[in-house]
Amino acid sequence: MKAIIATTVFGVIMMFAGLWVNDKKSIAGLATFLFAALLGVTIWDLTTTSVNSPKSLFNDMLRSEHYSLWFNTIMTGCSLLYVLLMGKEVQKVGKYVSEYFALIFFILCGLYLLSMYNNLLMMFIGIEILSIPQYILAGSDKRNLKSSEASLKYFLMGAFSTGILLMGITLLYGAARTFNITEMVTLMHSDALNPLALAGILFIMIAFSFKVSAAPMHMWTPDVYDGSPTVFTAFMATVVKSAAFFAFLRLFQVSFNSLSEHWVMVLAIITAATLLVGNVTAVFQQSVKRMLAYSSIAQAGFMLFAVLAVNAVAWQGIIIYAVAYSVATIGIFAVLVKLKDYTYDGFNGLAQREPLLAFVTTIFLFSLAGIPLTGGFMAKYYVLLAVVQQGQLMWLVIFALLMAAISVYYYFRVIIAMYFKAGTPEISSPVTGGDKFMLVVTCALVILLGVLPQLFLTKV
Amino acid sequence: MDVLMLSAEQNTPFNYFPIALQLVIAVGFVVVMMLVSHLLGPKRKTEDKLINFESGIPSVGNARQPMGIKYFLVAILFVLFDVEVIFFYPYAVNFKYLGKEGFLEVVLFVAFFLCGFIYIVKRGALEWED
């Protein structure tokens, strides 16, 4: 709860900082400091809450469970990493640097609500707080038509899916007569097969699938991720997506767990479609940025496994997947913004010009592809383990492994371009010692996640 | 009627029957009215009737012209403050019940709103002259 207050206040501070401070560098410095402070506040929240007794806040509107607070801490850590890696690039997007940071703080406020909500209304507000700043960030490069297109598309599609979500909440309320997700469990059980409740679950599932860009609700993702300024794509594709997944899992684990036989098949088909569409379409892309958009769809397919498996391992799976995927993707985007040409050819010969950049990119791509000793491997291991333990969807697990093999192809194309093709990549901004240091830290994190995943799961 | 009362006790889709009935009547009313006036009313088509109505003035040009963003901005900001006022109504109704704590919460809400207001004034969103 302290984190929610802190991030709101920090957001307002950033807004006003833009009025009185004109120097972009000091604004970015202030933002970095505030993100570090926010990480401190989330850790404070985490240490002052006991493991076994969740605190109920605001008349049971929120419930600060230990794993929620741990998720908050990790995601705030990822945001800090993001700002340290890309703070310089954020300054280049446009005039209103302090507002960009303020919006990111507000997005984090939505994230905290989504990890702790105990009431469907809070979930709805959380999703809105998470989404609306993103619509603005997507269109923040005002002179670029693609950016405006991304913003408008995202806004219209997002508003539409919000409507579906509200409809689902309404139907659920009609069936269970409560918005409280823990009370809902018993009430829905009493009349076993209420068609209203089932329709509500389906609507909410579709709305969430939209937010996490699962097929066939993924159509907006490539255009929005491709059109938005690259720095903000990095944030949208990682921290925000993880938050939406956490909320998805929370609702389906806490409330709809006992009804899983009714919805699990629908979600399994959505998962299979997501894996297929994401991976196969990514193969045909020419631009690395667009490939990463499709890869984020494919990774969403894997994260859906955690929602499918209604058991305790799923929590561990979603947390480790969120952090492994976020760290590696933020790293790749940090390299991508340094390049002028976003096509595969733009990476040709990077290993000769910037050997360190090429090396860390290789590690990040290994992680996304799920090669052992990187975070991505452990992440895939945990989510697949969760589904194997649940035991009904073995066909889906095998299908996912096949799709992971396809993903190796398009990730490795980048590595081949960097190491085995001749060329002189154009660097848009000089790579300083600080950049290199942060990239090495990120790279170390990816490997640490692969070697000692328990470090990130002790609190779950 | 008994059936309706009985079903209200349980939680079934049948509870929504009155709503469906109301929808049917609402849509039916509109359709019937339009059909009846279409069939019974006299028809006289003239040139003047077919052009767009613009407060009685002959229409000028195309509507798709670029327009100052200020109008839009003012309209949007108006909506914000309008909604703020709407929040006061439920508070006013429960003023005594919510007591001191409720008052402080409303003050907090207004303070946040004021922050936003100061921000937009300082950013120059309300300056009309370029």
Briefly note the structural class of the backbone of chain B: mainly alpha
- Our estimate of the beta-strand percent of chain B is under 5%
> Over the alpha carbons, how many angstroms does the gyration radius of chain A reach?
21 Å
The ordered H/E elements of chain A are HHEEHHHHHHHHHHHHHHHH
- Annotation field: number of helices of chain A: 18
Helix content of chain B: 55-70%
- Kindly report the CATH topology of chain B: Methane Monooxygenase Hydroxylase, Chain G, domain 1
Q: What's the CATH C level of chain B? A: Mainly Alpha
Count of β-strands of chain B: 0
Q: Which two chains touch over the largest interface?
A: A-B, 11 and 11 residues
What do you see in this structure?
With 460 residues, chain A is mainly α. Chain A has one domain. Chain A has 18 helices and 2 strands. In chain A, a hairpin with a 4-residue loop joins β1 and β2. In chain A, α4 runs antiparallel to α5 and α11 packs parallel to α17. Chain A is globular and about 65 Å long. Chain B has one domain: Methane Monooxygenase Hydroxylase, Chain G, domain 1. By secondary structure, chain B is mainly alpha-helical. In chain B, α4 packs antiparallel against α5. Classes of the chains: A mainly alpha (460), B mainly alpha (130).
In short:
The complex is a heterodimer of chains A (460) and B (130). With 460 residues, chain A is mainly alpha-helical. Chain A has 18 helices and two strands.
What's the SSE blueprint?
The complex is a heterodimer of chains A (about 450) and B (about 130).
Chain A: H1 2-20, H2 24-47, E1 55-57, E2 62-64, H3 66-93, H4 97-116, H5 120-138, H6 145-176, H7 181-190, H8 195-211, H9 220-227, H10 230-254, H11 260-283, H12 288-308, H13 312-336, H14 350-353, H15 355-369, H16 375-390, H17 394-420, H18 433-451
Antiparallel strand pairs in A: 1-2
Helix pairs in contact in A: 1-2, 1-4, 2-3, 2-4, 3-4, 3-10, 3-13, 4-5, 4-10, 5-6, 5-10, 6-8, 6-9, 8-11, 9-10, 9-12, 10-12, 10-13, 11-12, 11-17, 12-13, 12-16, 12-17, 13-15, 13-16, 13-18, 15-17, 15-18, 16-18
Chain B: H1 2-9, H2 17-40, H3 47-50, H4 69-93, H5 95-123
Helix pairs in contact in B: 4-5
